[in-house]
Amino acid sequence: MNDTIARPKQSVRSTSSVGIADCDIHPELKDRYGLHPYLSKRWRGHLDQYGELGFDVFSDNITYNGSTFNALRRDAVPPNGGPPGSDLPFMRKQHLDPNNVVFGVLQPMVALGNGGRNLDLSNALASAINDWQIAQFVEPEDRLRASVVVVPDDVVAAVAEIEKRAFDARFVQVEIFTGTTEPLGHRRYRPILEAAAHHGFPIGMHIGGRVGGRTASGWPSYYCESHIDLTFAAQTQIMSLILDGVFDQLPSLKVIVVECGCAWSIELGHRLDMLWRRMGSEVPALKHPPSHYLRQNIYFSTQPMEEPDPPEELNYLFDKIGWDRLLYASDYPHWDFDDPRYAFKARISEEHKAMLFRENAKKVYRIL
Amino acid sequence: MAKHVVGKAEDVGPGMRKVFEVRGRPIVVFNVGGDYFALLNRCPHQSAELSMGLISGIATADEPGHVQCSRRGEFIRCPWHGWEFDIRTGQSWCDPGRISVKQYPVSIAAGAELVEGPYKAETFPVSVEDSYLVVDL
Amino acid sequence: MLHNPTSVIDCDIHPAVPGNDALIPYMDEYWQDQFISRAIGEMDLASYPPSVPLSCRPDWRQDGEKPGVSLDRCREQALDKFNCEIAICNPLYGGQVAASGLMGAEVCTATNKWLAREWLDAEPRLRGSIVVGSQLPDRAAEEIHRCASDKRFVQVLLLAGNEMLLGRSHYWPIYEAAQKHGLPVGIHAGTMYRYPTSGGMGWPSTYLQDYASGTHIFAAQLQSLIMEGVFAKFPGLTFVMIEAGISWVPSFIWKSKKDWHGTRGEVPWVKRSPAVEIRDRVRFTIQPFDTSKDPVHVEKLIEHLGSEDMLLFSSDYPHWQFDGDDPMPPGFPARLRHKIAQENPLRTYPRLMETV
Questions:
Q1: How far, in Å, CA of A97 to CA of C178, rounded?
Q2: Is C177 within 8 Å of C184 (Cβ atoms)?
Q3: What backbone phi and psi angles, to 5 degrees, belong to A213?
Q4: Is B62 an interface residue toward C (CB < 8 Å)?
Q5: Which of A125, A299, A342, C3 has a CA that sits 20 to 30 A from residue B89's CA?
Q6: Is the pTM of this model over 0.90?
Q7: CA closest to A335 among chain B residues
């Protein structure tokens, strides 16, 4: 692979176009051997014998099974076989073309993503996922962009992977799942965040990683609990990034919270400010009230769309979060997919639509 | 409202569903044990094609852990978010008073009647010996 | 109704157990011996170290004194100042978090006996919560039965963070006992610290983040209580979320409701939308009022909660949640003051009516 690759020919169309940016598309492997071409013989053999050695309770299945197979859209199974998300022509036909997606960010959730317990294997997988995204999706389809998958628990390797992809314009962000081993603000992860900030990569912080929805009071029984409990991880990460001083050290770092909701962030800001007024003495280095960083460094993908009661309240919520913070995401081909035409149940002004469907993504992903 | 002959009854066998376009609208016809029902083929939530969903029964329970399954084949689950709709009424199970799919009357007509009319929009030959699905729209 | 239309029912104050020495007289012979011979150390909760700013408002602090130990100061700083006709005592001490369930149960029992003797006997405006641990649900149920004959105990009190989520049937003996005596189950902020406050992402580096994360535990508990079928199994039970904060609740309700539309087949005993269940069956004390001071936003928050019956007046004395003499939050609508200060608490706690 060549490290320095020219920007793809087709860039995102101007605001006058009705094209949209989708910041959460999940590419899938055609089968369990999908990464083999990108792995050395040593790791292919290892995988065949020992598997990925992750954190789930079953040897080859996730702990909390969703309402559908692998939480995928039932209508997204490609007619030519393979799981939803694995067939690029069908992805074009079912999603990119009809929804006029002119810019789509791939967020791979395959093969442990951010890593399992064997760090050497995890690093090999992360690098393979990065090569696979380019070869199978971005090279043949220039509306799509890739995420740099890294293993946060191996900081040296993660930084090296970021450096390796930093001059390839087909990668637009570093992908880290919310379920890290420790909160992301902790010192051990700082070099990864520094490297991302240095190269202008936002962090795409997608829900997931490690196991399901463990809570501070034990394990939920049901998927319908786990699906909600998982979202708190994003709040943990935001609090840690702010309170552990990441944004004071790296003011240019952008973190996109993906698939965790967003309405809660308004009140998280109030709650943190309230506590900071009482106990700022615990974090004396913090330069601003915590809510400042929410408005400065954090972005939110819209899916799964908030459905307030009544629906028109969406405008109030987005006003408070800040329209410049919001990025449309479909989550294609997962079951809780948001259709760009119908997901927003309120009347949204054209100006605001332009922001959340295009303009914000252009700025955050630096695609102008 | 006009009556539209959409196809042969035998094209939608028991337990099956089939999508027809009637006056530009996608309509899904279900055959539930010989009874036919026609729904708009769009989930009221985000417009997913209901026809791509799973046909199922409904799970109910009066007590945690004591579940009964009933009315097998009478519900369609949206292929995206899994909302359950009663094929017989179009009503959602989660909020039947507020969330439902538009339903259309559907009937069976013998080919012999159809030849006489007054039905619209037949785009296929009708034979006297077959039965046909007629949707009111 | 209370005698005075402008007085309040404070649904969350914290008399502090001075230490093990105060409880040992209320323990049985075996546990007296254990505590004395092993010189077991003090058991204040890691969730509320007495020295952290949140544990006591600065102008209420006395040098060298643990916050909340003095009844006189409680009268002067809270009961008289806030015009309380009734205040519900929620002592937070180590019984609920002890690793040994037997020790925990004994400390809880001693705490309840201590509260009745030292506080409730001495001050007629006070009512108590029956403090129980979750370690041994059968022992908790026994303690509920023991205390329930004293009508001054008006609810059962659990801590938010436990070894398992509170919906699990393991805990149902507690709910059965509470329902039998018509007692609501209060769930108070704080945790046994069996897991990091983040859940699965390791330990945060600050107390501030630990405390802020309390909302995640409450949300997970609510989801657990509903989805495991506790509301279906115990139709007479009300849950009170105490010191849980409030501002997180609307977005949680929306999400829980939206998910239930598609996943309810997994838990078919949940027959009503979580939004309806929560508004009908769950109450929240108002401090900390963790939102904006802007009255327009406060009105929005209340509108988004979807029910004005859910809020219960509280000061959280002596925790530092507000400044000044009025625990009623800035921007809180005047039209709801009487409702949350009297009507809602009287409806939530049936025993208050019997003793007014």
A1: 58
A2: no
A3: -105, 55
A4: yes
A5: A342
A6: yes
A7: B80
Per-residue pLDDT tens digits for A184-198: 999 999 999 999 999
Size of interface A-B (CB pairs under 8 A): 32
For chain A, percent of residues with pLDDT exceeding 70: 94
- Contact B46/A at CB under 8 A: yes
- Is the pLDDT confidence value at A5 over 60? no
pLDDT at C299: 97
For each of the domains in chain A, give its residue range(s) and CATH number, in order of start.
Answer: 20-364 (3.20.20.140)
Nearest to B104 by CA among B48, B34, B20: B20
Tokens of C329: 């939050």
Using alpha carbons only, give the angle C222, C47, A271 rounded to the nearest 5 degrees: 65
Which positions in chain A touch B17 (Cβ < 8 Å)?
A: none
| Measured distance CA(A170)–CA(A315) in Å, rounded | 34
Residues of A in contact with B45 (CB under 8 A): 342
| Residues of C in Cβ contact (< 8 Å) with B85 | none
Closest partner residue to C209 among A180, A217, A243, by Cβ?
A243
Q: Evaluate whether C220 touches A217 at the Cβ level (below 8 Å).
A: yes
Nearest CA in chain B to C272: B94
Strands (E), chain A: 20-25, 101-106, 144-149, 171-177, 203-206, 255-258, 298-301, 326-327
pLDDT digits (tens, 9 = 90+) for C113-156: 999 999 999 999 999 999 999 999 999 999 999 999 999 999 99
Could you write out the DSSP letters of every residue in C163-175?
SS-TTSGGGHHHH
Residue with tokens 């317990």: A117
> Hey, of A68, A94, A221, which one would you mutate to test binding to chain B, going by the most B CBs within 10 A of its CB?
A68
For residues A130 and A163, the answer to whether their CB atoms sit within 8 Å is no
**Domains of chain C by residue range:** 8-351
Enumerate neighbours of C (3 or more CB pairs within 8 A): A, B
Query: What structural domains does chain B harbor?
Result: 3-59+66-136 (2.102.10.10)
Nearest in space to A359 (alpha carbons), one of A31, A21, A79:
A21
Q: Rounded CA gap, C259 and C249, in Å?
A: 15
Q: Which pair of structure tokens corresponds to residue A66?
A: 């969703």
Does C169 sit within 8 Å of B92, measured CB to CB? no
Neighbours of chain B (3+ CB pairs under 8 A): A, C
- Asked if B120 has any chain A CB less than 8 Å from its own CB, the reply is no
Interface touch B83/C261, C-beta < 8 Å = yes
Task: Give helix C137-148 / helix C172-180 axis angle, nearest 10°.
Answer: 10
